[in-house]
Design brief:
- There is one protein chain.
- The chain is built from 1 helix and 6 strands.
- By secondary structure, the chain is α+β, with helices and mostly antiparallel strands.
- It folds into 2 domains: 1-33; 45-142, no CATH class.
- Strands 1-2-4-6-5 form a 5-stranded mixed barrel.
- A hairpin with a 3-residue loop joins strand 1 (45-53) and strand 2.
- The chain starts with a helix and ends in a 9-residue tail after the last strand.
- It comes from Hymenobacter antarcticus.
- This is Tissue inhibitor of metalloproteinase.
């Protein structure tokens, strides 16, 4: 008779454990999701050009005061290396060719346009970064602090 009481108890306990496990997975997923940072076209951001790839265009490490980017790595000859912790990809890189110099500090305004998420370049190699880097359209770009009106 003892074994007949254990069987229903084991079924109930396994369902409770399964439910708790599922709850833990869902909660962990929700807590680990990174909400996309709000990008405001009224804010003057600044950052340093850290790289250029055909797939992503100009890559800027935005000043930590403005957490609008994401961490990303890039593949190198000796393996992957961290490119930045607050990185953005510039969709309209071709508009700023002369400013595409690694190490240059830029000041800019930005928007996240869901209709403009590709640089338009045709790339023969998959040279993009690894990570959920926001793809932004920049404007008012310059080497001095943002001022009123376009540059």
């Amino acid at each position: 008779m003892g074994s007949s009481l254990q069987f229903p108890y084991l079924i109930i306990m396994s369902h409770k454990l399964l439910s708790l496990g599922l709850l833990a997975v869902v909660a962990g997923s929700l807590l680990s999701c990174k909400k996309d940072a709000d990008v405001s076209p009224a804010v003057c951001y600044s950052g340093r050009v850290v790289a250029y790839t055909c797939m992503d265009g100009m890559l800027i490490e935005v000043t930590s005061a403005f957490p609008i980017g994401a961490p990303a790595t890039i593949r190198g000859a000796s393996g992957d290396s961290l490119l930045g912790r607050n990185l953005i990809a510039v969709v309209n890189t071709s508009d700023y060719g002369r400013m595409n110099s690694v190490g240059l500090t830029l000041h800019f305004t930005a928007v996240n346009d869901p209709n403009r998420q590709h640089s338009g370049f045709t790339c023969l190699a998959a040279d993009g970064v690894k990570g959920p880097v926001p793809r932004l359209v920049l404007s008012n770009v310059g080497t001095t602090a943002c001022g009123p009106g376009p540059r």
